[in-house]
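Hey team,

Sharing the alanine--tRNA ligase run so nobody has to redo it. Sequence (650 residues) first:
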Amino acid sequence: MKSAELRWKFLDFFKDRGHKIIPSASLIPEGDSSTLFISSGMQPLVPYLLGQKHPEGTRLTDSQKSFRTEDIEEVGDGRHNTFFEMLGNWSLGDYFKKEQLTWIYSFLIDEIKIDASRLYATVFRGEEVIGVPKDSESVDILKQVFKTYGIDAKDVDFPENDGMQDGRIFYYPAKKNWWSKSGTPEKMPIGEIGGPDSEIFYDLGPDLKKHENSEFKGALCHVNCDCGRFIEIGNSVFIEYKKTQQGFEKLEQQNVDFGGGLERMTMVSEGLDNIFETDLFLHIIKKIEGLSGKRYRDDRKSFEVIADHIKSATFIMGDGDGISPNNTGQGYIVRRLVRRAIRFGKKLGITEKKWTKEIATIVTADYKDVYSELEKNITFIGKELKKEEEKFNETLERGLKELNGIKKWWGQIRRSSVNDMGSSGNYSQGTDQKREARELGVKLFYLYQSYGLPIELSLEELGGIIFEDEAIKSFNEELKKHQELSRTASAGMFKGGLADDEPETIKLHTAHHLLLAALQELFGKQVKQKGSNINSERLRIDFSFDRKITAEEIKKLEDMVNEKIHQGLDVVKRELPLEEAQKIGAEMEFGVKYGNMVSVYFIEDKKGNAISKEFCGGPHVKNTSELGTFKIIKEEASSQGVRRIKAILE
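Structure output:
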């Protein structure tokens, strides 16, 4: 089944069961500074899962644009991609496990004709330490579901130790069958919601010998084995818990959050074992074949990296938030994607200029009927890709010069190796050879990190290498160290609600406070912030307001903010008890739970008269005179009763 048909079948299936179809949210999170991108359908709906009433009711369905940074290095195995569409349905305190599990299997088997005998289910084993029991309720429901299709579904505990055991339903621990935004229960902060889940796996079959040809061939295979034989195509999360100081407590309402990747569902519905062979990538792959003169089957990984990364970059830049390749926040991820694609393009021998823009044009054409914002922003996307391609090609040229120096060094090593050979033809100093190969791996990682040269290109340029596996091993070790450092650094990256801690971002953060104060002064205190996003290029604020703002009002807002900037007001942070901060009327951030002591930022004159008081973690400038000139670049509707303003500092 083609992807477009499958997408609408899913939405119509749940519409027929009382669900309202809602549009995809932006890839850039609103009011959530803890993450760079929306990576699941659940993220935009957290307030409603906590009990806030959704304007469309208690049953919702959508296809949500999603992006997962952690899968960048995984692309190339045929089953991972960074940008994907998450088909989702939600129950906000409405139906629960029985309806959800019955419906989703009916959709997969009856609607898109997946062979029921190839489907397997997993459930939560339960954990005493967190006080959440074994999910035997889901097992009982699943047994009835499979029975409907003539399958006697045996449930199995500890499959990770004992293998399949002719089972159909498998119990796993929280590491595999618990879902929250932060991951497993011990990683969840106080106040976060989550719950046990039931995943759906599709068996690609024994004939492909995925397990036998994997690094896991020495262990028993099971549905959660990383060999790739079983592929997850959907997950029903039963969100009914909130983490507290004492452990986990039940939410006032039981929620269902289902998510299933359109790409994987399309793959299995078409009887394929690789998402890049579906119609979602077909036109892109053909274009890469034309640009490179090579066939997809000759170098699958390079084709898949290019196809995935340029598609993802196109969607991020095409979201309408002005994200472009740079060295901070979301822009850094775009730069990483584009440059990684170009590196693999070099490996394929692509020499044509502006080729990334050509692929972006294909992505836009493929999705224009679903995500019109791509076509609307294609000029911006093309311009930014062209600039980044030119910049990176210059960087690569410098990297190749560095590689020439390494090539000379390695040539000397090889010559000395030949001199050290004994009459038998064996190397007499094999240990030294390995050490030098490992040193080469470190040098090649430096080229990769500094100039973007992939190790494959570097090794090809160097020619045959003694102990090449040692060089690659050393390179991968350095890469792993770098990734760990990046993860550690990013853990504290978003303190205070910013995408980064660049000086320009901090200035825009302070301007954001001034703008909210101006909105309330002009339109009344009933105007409340509903979301925000701030990076080094612009600020964005969503606020409650029920009509379009006129050109005269936009000019008035600009003048009001610029007047406060010109006055040179002090920006002061004070730690206050929550109750006191509420009494003085400090603005609270939408959807945030606060502790007993809070940070409040005041923007005030020398006499202590405050024009802005906001709950905020900072950071900010010390005085508004540091900001420059404030300018609104866009005003538009965000959702019903909510307007959005984007602004810059010049």
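The radius of gyration is 27 Å.

Ping me if you want the raw files.
A.
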